[in-house]
Amino acid sequence: MYHKTVLSNGVRVVTEKIPGVRSVSTGIWVSVGSRDEDDGEQGVTHFIEHMLFKGTQRRSALDIAKALDAVGGFANAFTSKEHVCFHAKVLGTHLPMVVDVLTDIFLHSTFAPEEILREQQVILQEIRMIEDTPDEYIHILLQELFWNPNPLGRPIYGTAQAVASIDRERILRYQARTFNPARTVIAAAGDLEHQRFVELVSPSMATLPTRDSSNTRETPTNQAIREVIPKDLEQVHLCLGMQGASHLDESRFACHLLNVILGSSMSSRLFQEIREKRGLAYSVYSFMNSHEDTGLLGVYSGIAPDNVEETLQVIKEQLNMLAEQPIAETELNAAKEYVKGSMYLNAEITDSRMNRLAKNEFLFGRYIPYEEVEEKINQVTAREIRQWFRQVFHPDQLALVLLGPVEPDSLSAAL
Prior knowledge:
Elements: E1 2-6, E2 12-17, E3 23-30, H1 44-51, H2 61-69, E4 74-79, E5 84-91, H3 95-108, H4 113-131, H5 134-147, H6 160-164, H7 168-178, E6 184-190, H8 194-205, E7 226-230, E8 236-243, H9 252-262, H10 269-277, E9 281-290, E10 295-303, H11 308-324, H12 329-346, H13 350-364, H14 370-379, H15 382-392, E11 399-404, H16 410-414
Helix pairs in contact: 1-7, 3-8, 9-12, 9-15, 10-11, 12-14
């Protein structure tokens, strides 16, 4: 059962009681992410995410860890392009403790200078780790190129230079500007009662001062940039991108289904054609990155240098087929069952339910029943998918990045 309460300062509290579970997942969300950072602030949202577990006026970092470990709980945080979230999962009986810990770190973190210096080194290692993981790093490179120079394309973790320049004053200034009640949602799902939860969070979160809540985000213009980045690797990592659906587009259901048909499942066209029939790659898939005002539909594959041209050719053939040929009803129905099955399986996890509550509140301002989503999925036709794809697919406007042992002049030959 869903409930919503708005605190006196504008903080929204949304909960969903799930019968039959003993755990509860809760999170404090702020609608601010890497795309909201000004020049010189790159990576500061992600940095704050790390720092909030490093000590408050009442608790040391060890105290925070011990409080959760003592009840078998789990706490973490994440930063995205548009949100930062501090969340935890415990048994319902321990909800008062976890609310006290989360609100304490959110409102009273000290940002000790010595901890900032230490965490700078941790995040610099994180950046190097990602850059040493080519199948992850290439997605970051594609987004940078595809949305350049818009902040949406920037890496969430910032740059090494920007991270090294972050200090306590910059953190406090940014936090004061962005962490305000109008952007804040507290979500919880599982074994809880709404009114009791509101009573737990209200005394502390209602003290969050009201500030200017303006949150202007400029929609990026897609860039059809194609780039080869030579690197001494065993494989060439290929990432291709085009316009995708945003979280708010009515076409998002058609885009999700097309993504499943194209490459996000083992029975998908790309998996079957590139891996199963030709043995060109071990890893090949399509993906969707959706945001509130835009999206990216892409294809990734890790391949041997000698297979780059053939793999690109197969990808282009499959994209052209989706634009030119109708999708069979059997294929569409299988994709619908795949999407609905994934949705309902995730609904059995309290973390997923909590995430869904917060995101729907930010995007739509309301709870969206699973049955409503299922109906939208069922209503999508093969004709609608094809029409949408023909609007966004332009072969001469695809963004493409190749990372690995490949020569720069090989890109023209591959295309």
